UniProtKB/TrEMBL annotation:
<dbReference type="InterPro" id="IPR016181">
    <property type="entry name" value="Acyl_CoA_acyltransferase"/>
</dbReference>
<protein>
    <recommendedName>
        <fullName>N-acetyltransferase domain-containing protein</fullName>
    </recommendedName>
</protein>
<dbReference type="InterPro" id="IPR052523">
    <property type="entry name" value="Trichothecene_AcTrans"/>
</dbReference>
């Protein structure tokens, strides 16, 4: 699928970003962040940048990959998944190179999600960026690494899906906004950049009457998400018996944690 970039202004009203119209909303949308957050019940004490741009283009997907690769340096799940693929048995003396991290994310869900209409939002010239999959989205699992996933990745996918089904229940099994990635450029300072790529979509979940869902791979990030109204549903342990808490391989290791979180306070 190819995209022809064009810039329009879109308001996230209840009819604005329906799943069946995401593809037709084209490549790039310029959205006034202040207006988008006006009705939201999420935190409103943070100054937002003037605009947040949203796209499903291949260019945005590649920019997000680079952005995520720069932001995720020591995430246990990143370490676990790369060491599994590269057959690394003990920690190296230096962290994985930037190029190796890019390669990891290029084989994942970012490109396939964007190709199938997921929304990549960036604020303040990529100070912060996020990837959101709208309700009913099913296009993120056709990436190469998911065709025959290695054990740790398969365990993560299976456990995450089970926990999601447990807490969303039949009513919202396929009706939820999924925050797949959130990354911030540590070299840039911009108040409100993270809010700009979070709050419009949380407002949209409120207006749609559906939850938002994510898996946090970092305990510090859990606190960030809690600030926006998410709550921890369950702590999930991956790699018990084969990995350390930091993600590196260890026979008999206790495994590493990820946290399933839901945004649902508006549902009563």
């Amino acid at each position: 699928m190819s995209f022809e970039p064009r810039l329009i202004e879109v308001h996230l009203t209840p009819a604005g970003l329906r799943t069946d119209t995401v593809s037709s909303l084209l490549n790039t949308m310029s959205v006034p962040a202040q207006e988008l957050s006006a009705k939201s019940t999420t935190p409103d004490n943070i100054l937002l940048p003037a605009t947040v741009k949203v796209s499903s283009s291949p260019e945005y997907a590649q920019r997000l990959i680079v952005h995520v690769a720069r932001s995720f340096l020591t995430s246990p799940i990143l370490i676990g998944l790369i060491t599994e693929v590269d057959d690394i048995k003990q920690p190296p003396f230096t962290p994985f190179t930037f190029e190796r991290r890019v390669k990891h994310f290029e084989s994942g869900s970012i490109i396939s999600s964007a190709r199938n209409g997921a929304l990549i939002a960036e604020a303040d010239n990529w100070t912060a960026a996020s990837l959101w999959q709208p309700p009913g989205f099913t296009g993120g699992m056709d990436a190469p690494r998911y065709h025959n996933p290695p054990p740790l990745l398969k365990e993560f996918i299976t456990k995450a899906a089970a926990v999601r089904a447990k807490y969303l229940g039949p009513e919202f099994r396929e009706r939820y906004w999924h925050l797949s990635y959130l990354a911030r450029d540590p070299s840039k300072i911009s108040k409100g950049a993270v809010s700009a790529v979070m709050r419009p979509f949380l407002q949209r979940a409120e207006e749609d009457g559906v939850p938002a869902w994510l898996i946090s791979v970092d305990l510090h990030a859990v606190q960030v998400y809690e600030h926006y109204g998410f709550r921890v549903c369950e702590k999930i342990i991956i790699g018990q018996g084969v990995a350390r808490p930091d993600g590196w391989p260890e026979e008999g290791g206790e495994g590493f944690a990820v946290w399933a979180m839901v945004f649902d306070q508006h549902l009563g």
